[in-house]
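Open question from group meeting: does this chain pack into something compact, or does most of it stay loose? Before anyone orders reagents, we agreed to write out a predicted structure and look at it together. Recording both the input and the output here so the notebook holds the full record.
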Amino acid sequence: MALIGRLFVILFGFFAACLVAGAVVVGAIMFPEFSDLGAGPVDPGALNVLFGFGFIFVSGFALVPALIVVLITEAFNIRGVLTYAVGGGLVGLACYLGLVPFDPATLSFEGIVRRHLEILTGAGIVAGVVYWMIAGRNAGLWREPPPPLRQPPPLPSHSPPRS
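Structure tokens returned:
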């Protein structure tokens, strides 16, 4: 039963991390527009659509690499925040490199844009920390038996005996 509850916590942590990573990606890409004061206010409906697409994009591309990180940390009871930050950064890197064309003849990626690589890696780091706050702090605890129950305190000497 503890495993089923843990799976729900992992799923909730993953979705929250993807939501934050999508917000970071959209915010970083939209930053030049936000810094132009003469452009006027940004349409909130357009921002909602962009955040939605950012969430879907990040969660779709990050599912398999993030699942590998989650499986490793759950299997080995790894609970350090730095581990999740580095793992999230690697997941962000993997997501970006999954979008860049790879040339097998030269064994190199063609057309890497450094700013985009930094944005996705940074979004992965933030997502890793968010996942740690929700689910990573208790990684692997579902396998440990619950602590034994304490005995109730003794009844006062003048009370009637229990039946």
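Observations to bring back to the group:
The CA atoms of residues 45 and 51 lie 10 Å apart.
Residues 2-35 form the longest helix (34 residues).
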